[in-house]
Write a structure and sequence with these properties.
This protein is an all-alpha fold and about 170 residues long. Helices cover about 65% and strands about 0% of the residues. It is built from ten helices and no strands.
Protein backbone atom coordinates (compact mmCIF):
# COMPACT_ATOMS: atom_id res chain seq x y z
CA UNK A 1 0.00 0.00 0.00
CA UNK A 2 1.04 3.62 -0.30
CA UNK A 3 1.30 3.90 3.51
CA UNK A 4 4.23 1.47 3.38
CA UNK A 5 5.80 2.84 0.19
CA UNK A 6 9.61 3.18 0.31
CA UNK A 7 9.33 6.90 -0.43
CA UNK A 8 8.67 9.03 2.66
CA UNK A 9 6.91 11.65 0.51
CA UNK A 10 4.46 9.04 -0.80
CA UNK A 11 3.75 7.82 2.77
CA UNK A 12 3.27 11.43 3.89
CA UNK A 13 0.90 12.33 1.05
CA UNK A 14 -1.12 9.12 1.48
CA UNK A 15 -1.64 9.84 5.17
CA UNK A 16 -2.58 13.47 4.54
CA UNK A 17 -5.05 12.41 1.82
CA UNK A 18 -6.79 10.03 4.23
CA UNK A 19 -6.83 12.80 6.86
CA UNK A 20 -8.41 15.25 4.43
CA UNK A 21 -11.12 12.74 3.49
CA UNK A 22 -11.81 12.13 7.19
CA UNK A 23 -11.90 15.85 7.97
CA UNK A 24 -14.36 16.56 5.15
CA UNK A 25 -16.61 13.54 5.69
CA UNK A 26 -19.97 14.01 7.37
CA UNK A 27 -19.74 10.45 8.69
CA UNK A 28 -16.78 8.81 10.44
CA UNK A 29 -14.67 6.80 8.02
CA UNK A 30 -13.70 3.21 8.76
CA UNK A 31 -9.96 2.66 8.53
CA UNK A 32 -7.47 0.16 9.89
CA UNK A 33 -5.64 2.31 12.45
CA UNK A 34 -2.56 0.08 12.77
CA UNK A 35 -0.79 1.19 9.53
CA UNK A 36 -1.57 4.82 10.38
CA UNK A 37 -0.23 4.52 13.92
CA UNK A 38 2.94 2.87 12.61
CA UNK A 39 3.67 6.11 10.75
CA UNK A 40 3.89 7.93 14.09
CA UNK A 41 7.25 6.23 14.65
CA UNK A 42 8.48 6.35 11.04
CA UNK A 43 12.20 6.94 10.55
CA UNK A 44 11.47 10.10 8.56
CA UNK A 45 10.38 13.18 10.50
CA UNK A 46 8.35 14.45 7.53
CA UNK A 47 6.17 11.33 7.82
CA UNK A 48 5.90 11.61 11.63
CA UNK A 49 4.87 15.27 11.29
CA UNK A 50 2.15 14.27 8.82
CA UNK A 51 1.03 11.57 11.25
CA UNK A 52 0.91 14.15 14.03
CA UNK A 53 -1.28 16.35 11.86
CA UNK A 54 -3.52 13.65 10.43
CA UNK A 55 -4.09 11.05 13.13
CA UNK A 56 -6.46 13.23 15.13
CA UNK A 57 -8.53 14.01 12.04
CA UNK A 58 -8.78 10.34 11.18
CA UNK A 59 -9.14 8.69 14.59
CA UNK A 60 -10.63 11.47 16.73
CA UNK A 61 -10.25 11.02 20.49
CA UNK A 62 -8.96 7.51 19.78
CA UNK A 63 -5.68 9.12 18.69
CA UNK A 64 -4.95 10.74 22.04
CA UNK A 65 -2.50 8.11 23.31
CA UNK A 66 -0.36 8.07 20.19
CA UNK A 67 -0.47 11.87 19.88
CA UNK A 68 0.50 12.24 23.54
CA UNK A 69 3.52 10.00 22.99
CA UNK A 70 4.44 12.01 19.90
CA UNK A 71 4.58 15.26 21.90
CA UNK A 72 8.05 14.31 23.13
CA UNK A 73 9.46 13.61 19.65
CA UNK A 74 12.93 15.16 19.27
CA UNK A 75 11.94 16.91 16.03
CA UNK A 76 10.39 20.33 16.56
CA UNK A 77 7.48 20.11 14.10
CA UNK A 78 6.53 16.59 15.12
CA UNK A 79 6.12 17.41 18.82
CA UNK A 80 4.49 20.77 18.12
CA UNK A 81 1.98 19.39 15.61
CA UNK A 82 1.20 16.40 17.84
CA UNK A 83 0.30 18.77 20.69
CA UNK A 84 -1.74 20.98 18.39
CA UNK A 85 -3.60 17.95 17.01
CA UNK A 86 -4.20 16.71 20.53
CA UNK A 87 -5.83 20.02 21.42
CA UNK A 88 -8.06 19.87 18.33
CA UNK A 89 -9.60 16.53 19.34
CA UNK A 90 -13.18 16.59 20.64
CA UNK A 91 -11.76 16.24 24.19
CA UNK A 92 -8.77 18.40 23.31
CA UNK A 93 -9.09 20.96 26.07
CA UNK A 94 -8.63 18.23 28.67
CA UNK A 95 -5.81 16.53 26.75
CA UNK A 96 -4.05 19.86 26.25
CA UNK A 97 -4.39 20.68 29.93
CA UNK A 98 -2.78 17.34 30.85
CA UNK A 99 0.22 18.24 28.68
CA UNK A 100 0.53 21.59 30.48
CA UNK A 101 0.40 19.86 33.88
CA UNK A 102 3.08 17.32 32.96
CA UNK A 103 6.39 17.93 34.74
CA UNK A 104 8.47 16.65 31.80
CA UNK A 105 10.94 19.37 30.87
CA UNK A 106 12.59 17.85 27.79
CA UNK A 107 12.79 20.05 24.69
CA UNK A 108 9.97 18.12 22.99
CA UNK A 109 7.75 18.43 26.06
CA UNK A 110 8.44 22.18 26.27
CA UNK A 111 7.43 22.57 22.61
CA UNK A 112 4.27 20.58 23.26
CA UNK A 113 3.43 22.76 26.26
CA UNK A 114 3.97 25.86 24.15
CA UNK A 115 1.61 24.54 21.45
CA UNK A 116 -1.05 23.56 24.00
CA UNK A 117 -0.80 26.86 25.83
CA UNK A 118 -1.12 28.79 22.57
CA UNK A 119 -4.11 26.69 21.50
CA UNK A 120 -5.90 26.92 24.86
CA UNK A 121 -5.32 30.67 25.09
CA UNK A 122 -6.49 31.22 21.50
CA UNK A 123 -9.64 29.09 21.82
CA UNK A 124 -10.78 30.21 25.27
CA UNK A 125 -9.94 26.91 26.97
CA UNK A 126 -8.13 28.63 29.82
CA UNK A 127 -10.92 31.13 30.38
CA UNK A 128 -13.47 28.29 30.52
CA UNK A 129 -11.31 26.40 33.04
CA UNK A 130 -10.94 29.50 35.22
CA UNK A 131 -14.67 30.31 34.99
CA UNK A 132 -15.60 26.75 36.03
CA UNK A 133 -13.31 26.92 39.08
CA UNK A 134 -14.72 30.32 40.03
CA UNK A 135 -18.30 29.17 39.54
CA UNK A 136 -17.73 26.16 41.80
CA UNK A 137 -15.88 28.31 44.32
CA UNK A 138 -13.02 25.81 44.18
CA UNK A 139 -10.07 27.84 45.47
CA UNK A 140 -7.73 24.82 45.34
CA UNK A 141 -8.48 24.22 41.64
CA UNK A 142 -8.16 27.92 40.88
CA UNK A 143 -4.78 28.14 42.63
CA UNK A 144 -3.55 24.92 40.97
CA UNK A 145 -4.62 26.25 37.56
CA UNK A 146 -2.83 29.55 38.08
CA UNK A 147 0.31 27.77 39.29
CA UNK A 148 0.39 25.57 36.17
CA UNK A 149 -0.07 28.61 33.95
CA UNK A 150 2.73 30.45 35.71
CA UNK A 151 5.05 27.41 35.47
CA UNK A 152 4.51 27.08 31.70
CA UNK A 153 5.06 30.76 31.12
CA UNK A 154 1.59 32.12 30.48
CA UNK A 155 2.19 35.82 30.93
CA UNK A 156 -1.49 36.68 30.87
CA UNK A 157 -2.41 34.34 33.73
CA UNK A 158 0.88 34.01 35.58
CA UNK A 159 0.68 37.68 36.51
CA UNK A 160 -2.40 36.93 38.62
CA UNK A 161 -0.21 35.02 41.09
CA UNK A 162 2.42 37.75 41.36
CA UNK A 163 1.72 40.09 44.24
CA UNK A 164 1.46 43.71 43.17
CA UNK A 165 4.48 45.89 43.74
CA UNK A 166 4.18 48.13 46.77
CA UNK A 167 3.02 51.61 45.92
CA UNK A 168 5.22 54.34 47.26
CA UNK A 169 3.37 57.36 48.48
CA UNK A 170 5.22 60.65 48.44
CA UNK A 171 5.20 62.42 51.76
Amino acid sequence: TTLSDPSPLVRREALLAIAEIAANSAEPIAVDSEPLIRLSVDDESVVRAAAATGLGQILGDGAHRVLTSMTTDPEYWVSYRAAESLCRLPSGNEFGWRILCDHDDTPGARRAKSACLEWLERTGGIERRMAAALELGDDNELTATLEVLERVGSRAWGELLTPPAPVEVAA
